[in-house]
Sequence to fold (663 residues):
Amino acid sequence: MAELVGSMVVRPLLSLVMEKASSYLLDQYKVMEGMEEQHKKLKVMLPAILERITDAEKQATSKEAIRPWLQELKVAAYEAIQVFDEFNYEALHRQAKKEGCYIKLGMGNRIKFRYRMGNKLCKIVRNIEALVKQMRDFRFDKQPQAQVQINYLRENDSTMVDPEIVSRSRDEEKQKIVRMLVKEQANNKDPMVVPIVGMGRLGKTTLAQLIYNDPEVKKHFHQLLKWVCVSDDFDVCNLANKICNASESNLENALQKLQRELAGKRYLLVLDDVWNKDDNKWHKLNACLKHGDVGSAILTTTRDKKIAQLMGTVKGHDIARLDNKFIKEIIEAKAFISQERKPADLAGLVDDVVERCAGSPLAAKALGSVLCGKTTEEWKAVLSKSIAHNKDDQILPILKLSYDDLPSHMKQCFAFCAVFPKNHKIDVEILIQLWMANDFIPEQKDVRHETIGKQIFSELVSRSFFEDVKQVKGDTRYDSVYWYFSTSTCKIHDLMHDVALSVMGKEVATITEKPKQSDEFLQNTCRHILLSCRKPQAVLNDSLNIRSPAMQTLLCGEDIEISLQHLAKYSSLRALRLRQNKSTILLKPNQLHLLRYLDISFSDIVALPEDISILYNLQTLNVAYCQKLGRLPKGIKYMTALRHLYTHGCWELKRMPPESYSI
Fold:
């Protein structure tokens, strides 16, 4: 993969500090009494930085000396947000006491609070003062702050056109492989393995989907037709479980179940995005795959010809770059260009864009979206930008260019998605709630954050940052997440995922199996963590014994079986998902007073603690399928920020607490 210089997105953080520092609650409840001078200094410095931050972010991609300054500013902004969230919580706490719904938190008296918070605020002001002095040396230009655009012009624009174009462009290749699977393989006893081979972003998965959904293929392999996303982790046990919808933890049991599932069935199995070079793993899986009926086949997609040779029983199909005429169609569709209204001086520029895309439909969609609505001069400016690449990766910098074109708040929203593993199916509703929990969605008067979040998501879809958007209906559980009734899901193309990772760097940690050393993945810079490995509590306990990250998001997909340690280090969390087999919640509310999102669904808890009502910031509470949960706390009616409460599948829960209908 080409080395990308990750964007430094700092403006939204500074704007958020300014917003929190100006909250009316701070004055109303006098929580900054004795700190007025430092508060005033900060409110004077922030606009001065905001005037120049756009120029600083632009220059950081080409001037290495600016990046450390921006990084220090980013850290200072995060610390300021944390401090003002604590001030805001104290204001809400005093408000609750005034209104008679007060529960003692053991936070100490006002004098101690003022002393502790005064020290924190002084440190932040000193740090930002030093950064302002350095900023003057860089001589950044003043640039007006762009207004946040919420009502985007595009929804899903030409998303219906692109599949049609790609389908036509791949029709000959599709028919060739369909004929191979249905006719040439029909009487063969051993399963045929057909690898689709090609560099990233050329459309291997799209071609495989066209084959998988072909009516002739569906009819021929009606007994068993299965699609499995493999990606980096070729775990034989997990793959066997996915193929036959099992959950065996023992490899031998999983393989035996797979053999029984395949016995006597003519099947087509698609293994998408294979990276495994360990022939022993493949031979173990393949030994079971031979138990299918005559005519069975395996279709794989991979970037590596050596992997294709390892797996293939027939010569792999090398996918070709998309013909330039189809690339041109995609670009014009995404940029809303028609032959009738194409300016004469734009025609040559379209051809230049086509060449830049190197036959990649993903690059064409991304770059076409960047150019949508731009003037001829703006097209020239985009094309004049240096899009450096190496011989192995021509497209990734183009995708990075499309990321750089996003408004800054949308950059934050998309970059956060680096916390999800590749090929992860993301619940859109949950994603928006996580954006809200982390303050990524900008305020707009009289418009709900959920509405703005949906508009941001739609815009990112239109620009090809998300793909495979589907409507899910009914009761569905996937990867420890439960979807209620009707929702949307999406995925991120693995190259777009690489772009997000290049931006977030060590601010995210995703772990699907326990690391050999717990400090390998969890750094002090880490803010968003997803753990889907077994025994996540062991990873957390060991890691937090060494590090002190300012965690904002912690998503655990497996059961927490023993107590968590170092509880004070969870106090910065805004979003938390825990699965636990304990009868009481592991983390106490007074350790989580900044929390906005809490998901403890599928847990064995029998009751929520009464003092959960001190979570004055909590927006989402998910206790779905806590089948032993008998009651909700009476004080839930005082949680005025709560807007999403999920109790689906709580069979023992008979009614809501009195007077709680208002939530």
Q: What stands out?
A: The chain has 23 helices and 17 strands.
